Please model this.
Amino acid sequence: MSLAAFPEAVHVRAPGKINVYLGVGGRHEDGYHALATVFQAVSLYEDVIARDADDFSVSVVGVADPDTVPVDDRNLAMRAAKMLASATGYTGGVHLELRKSVPVAGGMGGGSADAAAALVACDALWGTGVSPHRLHELAARLGADVPFALHGGTAVGTGRGDQLNPALARGRFDWVLVPSEEGLSTPEIYARLDTHRAENGALADDPPLSLDVPIPVLQALRAGDPHSLAACMFNDLEVPALLERPALDDIITEGLHAGALSGIVSGSGPTVAFLCETPESAQYVQAELEAAGRTALHVHGPVSGARIISA
Ligand code: C5P
Model:
């Protein structure tokens, strides 16, 4: 195949996620915690445009404060591109333009979505033809949430959150998201959970290193029933996120007051996700929260994982 067969630019879109359920167990020696989680990909996307270049570089569009997203090797999309190049022996580079819509450091996996999109985009740009299985392996090395951003939909994550099994989910779920201006650090929230548990004697001696998602969560998803799901949404990271940012409790109260079925901190926060009964009720909850001065976004899930928009 001639080089001319490869595109000059590839545009890939990858979704943010909500952890509908997130149980955290003990800490492994590598510092990662055992998880049992259910991810749902929602209609808030990161767009990554990869263009041929001699070197590796990243630019960012769509964030209020550019300083919050590094454009060097700390950037997960940059690391993804370099990892793919070294795994395939590709000797050129890439420029990655990240068009961000998922809140930065918001607990919705925006950086992971960038990395998943970068893997798919560079593979298409460079014509490296990496298998889905190998892409998943590379994604898992980049971060616990990256494999899910590749796959999308609704999935159970165990291990560090990177061992995925699709979960059956009927219909669509309507969510209202309230992002915060200032993000939270995921490692700090996990550390805060450990401290909190140690101080309270809970799970301090023998934390489980293998966890399961409760059956009612899976049943509610399979039934497509927002009321049942609302009754069993749960996040072990909510307590440390609220300890770090007590004002999130006010947001949860406001959303419930506006008619949401349930409100939960997403992942390590601080984004709050409200599950609503119907698209109309989500629109109402969104309008009420905005009238109270909040930024509120109406999204739905599940949606598909990283996919090529144009090449
Ligand atoms: O893998 P990722 O970069 O998303 O994880 C960020 C941090 O979150 C890790 O460095 C770790 O402190 C924490 N984490 C954890 N257990 C997990 C996933 C993440 O402790 N299963």
Notes: The mean pLDDT is 94. The CA atoms of residues 197 and 204 lie 6 Å apart.
